[in-house]
Amino acid sequence: MKKAIIDYLQLSTEQYNELIFTYYWNWCYKYASNQNKTQQLFANASVNKWFMTEVLKSEKQFMKIAQTLPNRKDVLESVFYGLMAEVFNTFPKPLIEDLNNNFDFAVKINKYVAYAN
Prior knowledge:
Elements: H1 2-9, H2 13-31, H3 35-43, H4 45-66, H5 73-88, H6 93-116
Helix pairs in contact: 1-4, 2-3, 4-5
């Protein structure tokens, strides 16, 4: 499926991977309250799994839609980016709240350890 999407969008594999990476980084940045939390979200396996599951859903939806559209890059890009915008604007509230609580705890522990040394 990934190869077909790359062909539809006329991208290289590297460009497509960079596109998804950038979407993920920007998504983390959007929902984090500071740079440290952005990095923590980005590195979190649960968040990554959730995000990539959402991307896969969008890719599947794109493949269904793309088959009915004219094979024009501008039309296909518009549909693909629209679907990715839905992922970008999705906020998994329970997951993020749980992580925020854990991040706050981690920051308190780090401050305590720093003062203990």
